[in-house]
């Protein structure tokens, strides 16, 4: 029996048959997924497992906590494939036609990390200059993914500008990724060539590099699982440091209200240990 779901809340009014091969097990994470390539320099190269403190906090029977959603912002030049990447992961769909994002779109993906419920808010922003006003949404993000099109070198050159722009609004500890899309369109040699440039750029940006294809799905799930696990690890660490200034993880009180209302049951039973929301 095929599953039907609205293809995209904003972009299309049509309904598409979802791929029944969606592996919902990908939302359960009990080991920290590795980086794109273990040999590549990455600021998080040594993060190959959850930190001991996080594991202990999650395993201790007496520790019961509820983490607010972490926020991941996707930015990059127009048409680089941000929406396609997000839609491939969230809905297992790929649409070859192009419909530019208007302003900002967001998805919420629910995970179970080390047996704790955890949500990732995915903010998919428009690359077009006329939506520069969306910069307000860059605030208080936990993860920044600068997306470039591997078939368009200039989109890689612009990655620095995008990273600087988002980092102006954020803490230096924000997790940073540089993601090359449309891997399927490149021959092996071309891919190697652009990849070596991208790795240099990732080092400059102090970001972890990934190469993906929304068309084939290559590396998409791996990438999102890595992002989620690192964000979770960071959130648990911050939760355990009560003396640190509380930086609100999602940066949008209206959205938090929405999630809290949605999880009314959870709210009654638990309170967010990080945000101290009662
Ligand atoms: N072959 C191939 N095409 C892709 C891939 N990812 C995206 N595309 C195509 O590239 C075009 C732009 O993709 P979008 O996902 O809409 O790009 P975007 O970055 O969200 O664009 P804006 O919202 O305007 O910033 C579309 O025609 C997609 O089908 C990919 O991995 N492989």
UniProtKB/TrEMBL annotation:
Residues of the signal peptide? none
Q: How does it sit in the membrane?
A: Lipid-anchor
* UniProt-listed PROSITE patterns: RAB
GO annotation, biological process = protein transport
Its subcellular locations are:
Golgi apparatus membrane
Entry EC number(s): 3.6.5.2
* Gene Ontology MF terms in the entry: G protein activity; GTP binding; metal ion binding
Read off the InterPro entries from this record: P-loop_NTPase (IPR027417), Rab (IPR050227), Small_GTP-bd (IPR005225), Small_GTPase (IPR001806)
Q: Name one Pfam family in it.
A: Ras
Alphabetically ordered keywords of this record = Golgi apparatus, GTP-binding, Hydrolase, Lipoprotein, Magnesium, Membrane, Metal-binding, Nucleotide-binding, Prenylation, Protein transport, Transport
Q: What is its main location?
A: Golgi
This enzyme catalyses:
GTP + H2O = GDP + phosphate + H(+)
Enzyme class comes to hydrolase
User: Which positions are tagged coiled coil?
Assistant: none
A GO-annotated cellular component: Golgi membrane
The Swiss-Prot or TrEMBL record lists the needed cofactor(s) as: Mg(2+)
Known role: The small GTPases Rab are key regulators of intracellular membrane trafficking, from the formation of transport vesicles to their fusion with membranes. Rabs cycle between an inactive GDP-bound form and an active GTP-bound form that is able to recruit to membranes different sets of downstream effectors directly responsible for vesicle formation, movement, tethering and fusion.
Family note: Belongs to the small GTPase superfamily. Rab family.
Q: Write the protein's name.
A: Ras-related protein Rab-36
The beginning of the lineage is: Eukaryota, Metazoa, Ecdysozoa, Arthropoda, Hexapoda
